[in-house]
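Translate sequence into structure tokens.
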Amino acid sequence: MRCVAKYSTCGLRRYQWFDIIDPANKNFLDGVRFHMRSDIVPGVVFPDYELSDHTATRRKLSELQGQDPMILVLGRGGYCPKDRRQHEGLVQLHRELEVAYCRLVTISTDNITETNEFRTGVDAHWPFLSDPRRIVQKDLDIAEYTDPEHNPMIPHVIVLEPSLVIYKIYMGYWFFGRPTMEDLRQDLRAVTRKCRPDWDITTPELKAAWQQGRKELFYPYGKTYVQTLGEQD
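Result follows.
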């Protein structure tokens, strides 16, 4: 469930969000302002944007995700010390994501050169997508209007189930609005439990399925391990 608290700043009424939207609670959501485009909520499919990565290769989010859970980071870019510090933490988490069969992608409004400098500067090894035309920023309505000089996106982290289904959205204009590495571990535990049919292989049903040769219920779900290696970035 998502919680909301109303407060006032300089005579302007604002809303502060916490953690989770519950898309099933329609009455609760009526009249409340969202962080981004109002149809971008948990349970719906996130737009399958196609952008150039740090090698100038065009990539779609669905291609980068494959059939795995994915963390999508929408950032300001390499000029922002908060983004750099966030990504330094993600570098450590990414080592866990690789062995947990989860994906990580960063999008910023940096150009290709700046994107490469950002990625190299934090020693990251996952895809960084460049969006200098601000396609994502405009489509999601997340322009950071308080910084007209850089005109970045308001930072967000989106946890995605397979098929780009949104599980959770974090808004990180302030640094502590961004998820901690432990927050993301817990989110990915929940998503993995939900999407992996072999999460608990101690059940009698899965033991019987294995004995019957139904290998499609077990990772890598009908593929060979060589095929999964070819899908990695």
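Note: The chain has eight helices and nine strands.
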